[in-house]
Amino acid sequence: MSRVLHPGGPRFPDFSGGAVTFTGPRPPAVCDPTQPSRRNGVLMAVTNPTSFRPVRLALDLAAIGWHVFPLSPGNKRPLANCLDCQDNPHCADDDYAACLCLPDGQWCHGVRAATTDPDRITTWWRRAPNAVPAVAAGPSGLVLIDLDTHSDQPPGNPAHDLLPGIPLVDNQVPGGFDSVRNGIDAMHLLARIRGGPRPWPSGPDHQPVSVHTPSGGRHLWYRAPDGHLHQALSALGWQIDIKAGWSYGIAPGATTNSGTYTIHGGTPGAPGHMPDWLLDEVHRVAGPKPAPAPPAVIPAAPGQGNAAGYVRTVLDRGTAELASLTDGRKAALSALAYKVGGLLTWAGLTPTDVEDHLIHAGLASGLPDRQARRIVHRALTNGLTRPLPAPRDRRTA
Question: Can you give the pTM of this predicted structure?
């Protein structure tokens, strides 16, 4: 995959309100170690909202292994890519590996830029001093359970939609279905159904970093379990979201235009593990799905049996490698599809003969269906336009 270099260094919009373009050398990264930020192991910036400084909070969290990156204080979205990335189609967020901004220390591509590097963090907040720190769940070894209190209408079919996958009857719900008014109520109901503790959460071993959000919701940061969870958002119940992998949440202790995310329990340096009943539910909803059945055997053109077998070997090895990865799966699938595409002409095969096998490899690794199909189609097409020579000692008659 080609790497995109921005001549003269990335150019950034001015986040102080003007229209300044950053070019040339970047400001020096300065982290002042003389400023005390911790006392008795407790993060002062986190626990004392009146002293909130975004850069201080970001540095404090990074020091305990929480990977952070900047958000806009208004819309709570990642800061915009640099102007060069915005103008370059090769720097799309789903193609971030082709861009040099990340290894160069920029904040482009949102959560993918998350880091614990104090110099990089300091440089970012020099450019955008009011940016809100956000935390990337997966790289930080965390899972965020996000309980909303939005004024949405309750589900039309609460017996099936309050807790998807768990059929309910009205007498299982104290006060009836109408008593479940938000995600906090739905979480208490889930705990009751699954035999969890009440009031919930409780117990020192399972105490999350519990955060009250400005809207009245709750953020519950737990230590991530072993094993792969989906990167995308997953719904545990009505107004209950699971954020893992490359999903993110606003940092505990941060202040946005809406208010402060205040810690009410737990310690950021030692978040608890999920209790067994909750861990089972998270794995049920967000855990790895069973691998789809492999497609049919690749057909061999007349006189090309050995060639088709070679392509199948390439696919099998690539599929096994993908299944072993926890990161870099999109790039690995793209490389595999590109290589297979380059072998098609030699093997006397068509894209239709191998496309299902490649998509299966992506799905089995945990990639979403739509994403796997997009990667395979693009890389397979590119590989087909650049045929590879016949592998040594594999030529057929």
Answer: 0.68
